Amino acid sequence: MKRSLYLVIALCCTCGLFSFNGFGQLINELDINPGGTDQPCEYVELRGTPGAIIENVHFVAFEGDAAPSGTADFVVTFGSPGPAFGSNGLIVITGTAACGARTYAPETTRLQTTLLDAANGLENGTISFLLISTASAITANTDYDTDNNGTLEALPAGATILDAVAWTDGDAGDIMYGGTNLTATGGVIGASTRFPTNTTANSAAAWYAGAMTGTNDANTYSPTIRTANFPSDGALTPGATNVGTVGGGGPGVTKSFTGYLNGAQEVPTNASAAKGFGRVTLNEAETSITVSISYGSAAVPLSSNVIAGHIHGPAAPGVNAPVLFDLAPAGGAAFGSVNNATFAITPAQVANLKAGLFYFNIHTVNNSGGEIRGQILVPRSVVDINGDGRTDHVVVRAAGGAGSQLTWLNSLNDTGPAPSREWGVSGDQIIAGDYDGDGIDDETVFRPSNATFYIIQSATLTARIDQFGQTGDNPRIVGDYDGDGRDDLAVYRSGAQSFWYYKTSPTAVYNSVGWGQTGDFPAPGDYDGDGKSDFVVQRPTGGNGVFWKQLSGGSMSAEQFGLASDGVVPGDYDGDGKTDVAVFRTTGGFYVWDFEPSGTAGSTVVSDTWG
């Protein structure tokens, strides 16, 4: 057993932007048993908002072996004032000696201690790591579970467990604390990594783990001793942004992937006006896929009859690849569909599917190499904070009056609430969007007083502050206007001639489109399913509402739908990858929701009463 250690860190850092007192701060990565000898390569990594100060917080390793269970073996206390997280949102605690060829990113706050240079630094075996918020002392070599009942009843009154992760070596009578227990097949865990897109505290699903292999400065996990959810791209990243694709490991839940098809994605490109949409559903066991796809339409068919349809791969956009799955579409027509075709899939193919390396391809008489093509990707969901393709429950809470701090509370699907971070002030407008293209919605506010977007980019946990527009503009039209997979900053400016302003990158020159007039209501969305946001307004006309559309390709149309007083709530209600015209109104004390499925526009209205 390694000796207990006690380390106090109370650094005064002037670079902190604001103090967190623990909330939104997480354990991010641990390496307690490197390959080869432990020292000097053990480390602890914490994650928080870039620039935030961590204070009155303790990182504690609790012994889990039967006899001394609950003893604090290793304690790092962040006093007041404490250090600030680096500009990438990371703090890494290491020894002072060099760890082979290992280096740390300069934007990471690195705290060094000689206690991790010598042998017996961090405990192996059954061990629990907790991040605890309290202004009271927590001391090493103290037993906080004196009756060995699995509860740390001797912690200071009011102490809060901000985050925890634990594992065992399997001995009888061992105890783990914090409720976040990891299990590996084939041996004992020596390191663990938080999925980069999962900021849920005290959740085993947020982690993958395993034993380490190679030299002590290697970042490679063992291929055999690992957790069941270990992702194909899992690895240690000391002092750098974590890696690991959510759902990239073993079986779990059914996963859905979609693709938008057009001629512009073909190699070489073509001028086909036809579009398509496909969906791939991977079963829970990750052994088979079910595929449905539609291509062309009676109004906008393919240039000639279909002769073949496939899923190809592996290949990135712009690269051709061989056929993997034959969809066998019916020939003799220039539009059609394939429904619920099922195929067996190998683990290697699953990894390529999750990596976005498959694409749909529809071949025609005139374009035998392919007329419309679409990369198959994880579908975008509204307010998807962890990148699993599902909408998450998010609450933004103001602490008090005008100008008070906003706190974002995230519940990742049904996994329970988890304090996330403070971002924005009362009076800001909440604007969710994936501005860095990593498949995760970034926590974003728009401040009307200075027409500025404040964004925490989830890919790097860095702040982006971008002044765009002017006071009085409506920022609720953000979307992907150029089809590159990233949401673009955008504002709607009402006037006798209303304008849509957007820019496709932080350094791009803005674009403007004149569409709408005073009294119109913007209804943004991708109405034609080409992967680009369109320009659409609802105009009260008499007692009715009229939707005026200018699609990304330039075509224009007008359609009467709903009443002039209806609320406008566009969205993809039928799951075909296209935004549907939708409204709601109050009738008899209830909300009535009407939408028009895009596949039957002009002929079908779906109505429901809810709320």
Model description:
This protein is mainly β. Among the domains are: 5-227, no CATH class; 255-376, Immunoglobulin-like (Sandwich). Helices cover 1% and strands 37% of the residues. The chain has one helix and 40 strands. The strands form nine sheets. An eight-stranded mixed β-sheet has the order 7-6-3-2-12-13-14-11, with no helix packed on it. A hairpin with a 4-residue loop joins strand 28 (452-457) and strand 29. The radius of gyration is 27 Å and the shape is globular.
Spell out the blueprint of helices and strands.
Layout: E1 5-9, E2 26-31, E3 43-47, E4 57-63, E5 72-78, E6 90-94, E7 109-112, E8 127-133, E9 160-167, E10 181-182, E11 184-185, E12 191-194, E13 207-212, E14 221-227, E15 255-261, E16 276-282, E17 288-295, E18 306-312, E19 323-326, E20 336-344, H1 347-354, E21 358-364, E22 372-376, E23 393-398, E24 405-411, E25 417-425, E26 429-430, E27 443-447, E28 452-457, E29 462-467, E30 489-493, E31 499-503, E32 511-514, E33 521-522, E34 535-541, E35 544-550, E36 556-563, E37 567-568, E38 581-587, E39 590-596, E40 606-609
